[in-house]
């Protein structure tokens, strides 16, 4: 199907849904999980970048963005790549592990994570999670160790600081493992006053449109280890650039994303802009990636045009974090009134509150229309599978099985 036709089909479906909701006397607009930190200043920056193509090779902007992020994050070094997954591959390579080293990771994540480890020449090995914060269980990780295990991934899921943060760091110290923190959901989450990502050897962040902040696609690696930083800088310098066509798609996706998810009158404007810019549509994870294949241009550094968007977003991160945490509190109050379990916020931590996870019954997860009817928000199904959105199975992780069957999530930003 041509991009234009695909857009027209989607727009027709969406307008039909708005109409149905209106006929049932329901609110036509529901909040979204995507692009919620975009505002008119982001749109202005994207339009300016589209008008100044001569600057798309000015890597000083990328260095400046990475340095600004490092300072904000309390880290000694940051490098910016084209996506979180590409940042993760760079992060693992910068650890200089032996070829074929095994890396432990939670069996409840997105498929981009094990792929990124494999693309760095390592072997992903899954261990079970805990259901308090949906992170890697230290006990399960210890049981899954083999003589080839060289590193583990601490994933701060939904923006919650991982329950076993300390225990996993301790396990790594005892077994001499390197620690990779996956902060793709947790940019800005703090633990004892310090931002997550600063306790392991290396950490990654994502600014994909459904994450804590949004540049369409984008990723960062941080480290406080000088040797790792030196290798990261070398890799970044060797990394390819994003093609101009891709940068153009990203900038248009930001403009359309704002009008589709955030703008007043988005139920009309979003669709108009989507049809206008149908040929600039992006896909988060390609079919080839779902099969575990390395995309042809994988390993690119961030484009200067996207780094400029990142600088605009960074200014607003704190503002949106406050709003997200306020929504989190309201969801907590609702869950308590309903007699449902609330997610566990680790004492001493302040979560970035990307999404509010909720354990419901498998029936309630199978069909989530009740969420929209009762709460006027959509239900997120992160993660609908162990390696979302891939359906390839992960076995031997019973708590992850439960999360797949029972965890839904609610948005923490409304427009
Ligand atoms: C999204 C995500 C990533 C990868 O980020 P991209 O920017 O989409 O490549 C890594 N880890 C987790 C847990 C994620 O959800």
What does this structure look like?
This protein is an alpha/beta fold. 45% of the residues lie in helices and 14% in strands. The chain has 15 helices and 14 strands. It has a seven-stranded mixed sheet with strand order 1-10-9-6-5-2-4, with helices on both faces. Strands 8-7-11 form a three-stranded antiparallel sheet, with no helix packed on it. A hairpin with a 2-residue loop joins β7 and β8. α2 packs antiparallel against α12 and α4 crosses α8. The longest helix is centred in the last third of the chain and has 34 residues. The two termini are 32 Å apart. The mean pLDDT is 94. The structure holds pyridoxal-5'-phosphate. Pyridoxal-5'-phosphate (PLP) binds next to α4, β3 and α5.
The set of bound ligands, ions and cofactors reads:
pyridoxal-5'-phosphate
Helix/strand order, N-terminal first: HHHEHEEHEHEHEEEEEHHHHHEEHHEHE
Rg value: 21 Å
Q: How much β-strand is present in the residues?
A: 5-15%
Number of strands: 14
Structural class: alpha/beta
Mind describing the biggest β-sheet?
7 strands, mixed
Shape: globular
- Mean of all residue-level pLDDT scores: 94
Q: What spatial order of strands do you see in the largest sheet?
A: 1-10-9-6-5-2-4
N-to-C span: 32 Å
Contiguous helical run count:
15
| Helix residue percentage | 40-55%
**Low-confidence stretches at least 5 residues in length (pLDDT < 50)?**
none
Task: Please outline the helices and strands.
Blueprint: H1 3-23, H2 40-51, H3 59-73, E1 77-81, H4 84-94, E2 102-106, E3 109-110, H5 112-119, E4 123-127, H6 138-144, E5 149-155, H7 165-175, E6 178-182, E7 190-191, E8 194-195, E9 202-206, E10 219-223, H8 226-238, H9 244-261, H10 266-276, H11 287-290, H12 304-337, E11 349-350, E12 355-359, H13 362-366, H14 369-375, E13 387-388, H15 398-406, E14 407-411
Parallel strand pairs: 2-4, 2-5, 3-13, 5-6, 6-9
Antiparallel strand pairs: 1-10, 7-8, 7-11, 9-10, 12-14
Helix pairs in contact: 1-10, 2-9, 2-12, 3-12, 4-5, 4-8, 9-10
Bound molecules: pyridoxal-5'-phosphate.
Pyridoxal-5'-phosphate is lined by residues 83-85, 109-110, 112-113, 155, 182, 184-185, 206, 208, 217, 219.
């Amino acid at each position: 199907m041509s991009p234009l036709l695909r857009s027209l089909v989607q727009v027709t479906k969406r307008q039909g849904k708005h109409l149905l909701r209106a006929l049932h006397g329901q609110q036509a607009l529901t909040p979204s999980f995507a692009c919620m930190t975009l505002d008119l200043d982001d749109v202005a920056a994207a339009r300016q970048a589209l008008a100044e193509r001569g600057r798309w090779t000015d890597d000083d902007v990328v260095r400046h963005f990475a340095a600004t992020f490092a300072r904000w994050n309390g880290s000694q070094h940051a490098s910016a790549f084209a996506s979180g997954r590409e940042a993760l591959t760079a992060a693992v390579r910068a650890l200089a592990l032996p070829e074929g080293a095994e890396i432990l990771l939670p069996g409840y994540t997105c498929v981009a994570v094990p792929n990124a480890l494999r693309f760095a020449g390592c072997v992903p090995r899954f261990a079970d999670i805990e259901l308090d914060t949906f992170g890697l269980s230290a006990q399960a990780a210890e049981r899954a160790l083999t003589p080839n295990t060289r590193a583990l991934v601490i994933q701060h899921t939904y923006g919650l600081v991982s329950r076993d943060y300390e225990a996993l760091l301790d396990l790594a110290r005892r077994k001499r493992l390197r620690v990779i923190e996956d902060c793709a959901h947790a940019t800005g989450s703090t633990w004892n006053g310090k931002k997550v990502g600063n306790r392991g050897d290396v950490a990654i962040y994502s600014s994909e449109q459904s994450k804590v902040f949004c540049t369409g696609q984008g990723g960062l690696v941080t480290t406080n280890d000088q040797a790792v930083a030196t290798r990261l800088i070398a890799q970044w310098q060797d990394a390819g650039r994003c093609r101009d066509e891709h940068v153009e798609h990203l900038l248009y996706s930001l403009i359309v994303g704002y009008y589709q998810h955030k703008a007043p009158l988005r139920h009309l404007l979003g669709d108009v802009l989507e049809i206008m810019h149908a040929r600039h549509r992006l896909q988060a994870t390609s079919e080839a990636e779902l099969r575990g294949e390395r995309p042809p241009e994988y390993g690119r550094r961030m484009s200067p045009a996207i780094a400029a968007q990142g600088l605009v977003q960074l200014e607003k991160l704190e503002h949106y974090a406050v709003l997200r945490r306020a929504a989190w509190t309201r969801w907590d109050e609702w869950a308590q009134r309903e007699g449902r379990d609330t997610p566990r916020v680790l004492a001493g931590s302040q979560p970035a509150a990307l999404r509010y996870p909720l354990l419901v019954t498998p029936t309630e997860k199978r069909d989530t229309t009740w969420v929209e009817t009762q709460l006027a928000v959509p239900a997120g199904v992160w993660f609908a599978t162990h390696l979302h959105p891939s359906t390839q199975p992960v076995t031997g992780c019973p708590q992850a099985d439960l999360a797949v069957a029972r965890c839904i999530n609610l948005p923490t930003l409304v427009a």
